[in-house]
TrEMBL record:
It comes from Stella humosa. Its cofactor is Fe(2+). This is Dioxygenase. Its EC number is 1.13.11.-. One of its GO terms (molecular function) is carotenoid dioxygenase activity. Binds 1 Fe(2+) ion per subunit. One of its GO terms (biological process) is carotene catabolic process. Keywords: Dioxygenase, Iron, Metal-binding, Oxidoreductase. Signal peptide: none annotated. The keyword Iron applies. The keyword Protein biosynthesis does not apply.
Length: 467
């Protein structure tokens, strides 16, 4: 066990289950309520912001990444957590204070030339490497067993600039499909896309220009197409330099969605337009004849201010809801349709990843029941696209639920036949739990609940790696 300390400020994004933890654990067998399925063997890796030196003026999105690894083997569970030792983390640890404000901004006295990446958003295995991802920087490689930080990966110098935290792994080709935004820095509208083969080598890297510089947190990939949502949460260097919001909501710009063939060029991108909306996360996308369908968690407005710094909405932040976008590549119109599928607010949509890019019959997300605190989730929801029904499990009011990750029962199991894993913190609990559900029977409650040695702060994304 490795304990590090730091001053503890008070503020909405540094309190409750957003508060960071300062102990790095390495446990032996953990206590389990119920029984873990014996066939569930592997590790759930999960990433999330956990600032080494929390401050009240830093956005939660820019906290230092901490990896939580939950290893399940033959009915037993162990846990390990480690900060990602980025250049920023090492510099701040040595200085004993926060040096960066985030979004490219430093604090007075910060030495020049320190990379500000936080590697805090997602973690996945590809090409034999465990990669911690954050969209402003290249992937950071970690040792899968020890979680020790190994350094940035630039794929032999073939990939430059920011790299999304939401790449897609194509089940057919094994490629890691990715994009980047703000290439060249300064909130530029230049973007990239590319692919890394299953051997870890770059197959494709191409740049293109978006209609305007936007925060592009996720994209979609079908078997033959890539889909880039350019939504009006804009970045501006001029605003950042004049004390205004670096990122701001400009709904008058509308939504612009770029679609290109995977075997084509961004020069031939088709652009579709629609009313302003914001989407952090895509559930899945697929093709149906000349149509492209994309299921997203859609917000009326993101939790960012207007360009003049005034609030973009009154009252609590809006909730995202499951929404289907439909594009017709042969339709002769540059408009796309948006249809909400569910009325439960939620985020962190996932599918059975073997269906990534193809039509899926099942999806899961973290939901917000009527008693959920603003910005947090207390429910795990399953949406059945064959019956258009939702099945869910609500934890006690005030609980905090993380992204539900699906694990198939076996490599050749039917879609949805398996388990869903999520990290849960019961209200005010000192310890978080790892809850394991039958993926299609959420309302039966957890099959097993692993008591963790500490609280796991509200975090972002992760993935299962089979043993
Ligand atoms: Fe995300």
């Amino acid at each position: 066990m490795n304990t590090l300390t730091a001053p503890a400020p008070s503020g909405a994004r540094t309190a409750g289950n957003y508060a960071p933890v300062f102990v790095e654990h390495e446990t032996t067998r953990l206590a389990i309520k119920g029984a873990l399925p014996r066939a569930l063997n592997g590790t759930l890796f999960r990433n999330g912001p956990n600032p080494r030196f929390p401050t009240e003026d830093s956005h939660w999105f820019v906290g230092d990444g901490m990896i939580h690894a939950f290893t399940l083997e033959d009915g037993a569970a162990t846990y390990r957590n480690r900060w990602v030792r980025t250049p920023k983390w090492l510099a701040e640890d040595a200085a004993g204070r926060s040096l960066f404000r985030g979004f490219g901004q430093t604090r007075p006295g910060t030495p020049a030339g320190i990379d500000g990446g936080v590697a805090n958003t997602n973690v996945l295995l590809h090409g034999g490497r465990l990669l911690a991802l954050e969209e402003g920087h290249l992937p950071m490689a970690l040792a899968p067993d020890s979680l020790a930080t190994e350094g940035y990966v630039d794929f032999d110098g073939t990939v430059a600039g920011p790299f999304t935290a939401h790449p897609k792994i194509c089940p057919q080709t094994g490629e890691l499909l990715f994009y980047g935004y703000h290439l060249g820095g300064g909130f530029s509208p230049v973007m990239s896309h590319g692919s890394i083969g299953p051997d870890g080598r770059t197959r494709r890297f191409e740049r293109f220009e978006a209609p305007f510089p936007s925060m592009v947190h996720d994209f979609a990939a079908t078997r033959n197409h890539l889909v880039f949502p350019i939504l009006p949460l804009t970045g501006s260097l001029v605003r950042a330099r004049t004390g205004r919001p670096p990122y701001a909501w400009e709904p008058e710009l509308g939504s612009h969605i770029g679609i290109m063939r995977r075997d084509g060029s961004a020069a031939d991108m088709a652009w579709f337009r629609g009313p302003a909306c914001y989407v952090f996360h895509v559930m899945n996308a697929w093709e149906d004849g000349s149509r492209i369908l994309v299921d997203v968690m859609q917000l009326d407005a993101p939790p960012f201010p207007l360009a003049d710094g005034s609030p973009a909405f009154k009252g609590p932040p809006p909730r995202a809801r499951l929404c289907r976008w439909t594009f017709d590549l042969a339709g002769g119109s540059d408009r796309f349709h948006q249809t909400f599928l569910d009325d439960l607010g939620g985020e962190f949509p996932r599918i059975d990843d073997r269906l990534s890019g193809s039509a899926n019959g099942h999806g899961w997300f973290a939901g917000a029941g009527p008693a959920a605190a603003p910005g947090s989730f207390d429910t795990i929801a399953h949406f059945d696209f064959t019956t258009w029904r939702r099945n869910s499990h609500a934890f006690a009011p005030g609980s905090s639920v993380s992204e539900p990750v699906f694990v198939p029962r076996a490599a050749d199991a039917a879609e949805g036949d398996g388990w869903v894993l999520a990290v849960v913190r019961q209200p005010e609990a000192e310890h978080s739990e790892l809850a394991v559900f039958d993926a299609l029977q959420l309302d039966d409650g957890p099959l097993a609940t692993v008591t963790l040695p500490a609280r796991v702060p509200a975090g972002l994304h992760g993935n299962w790696v089979p043993a």
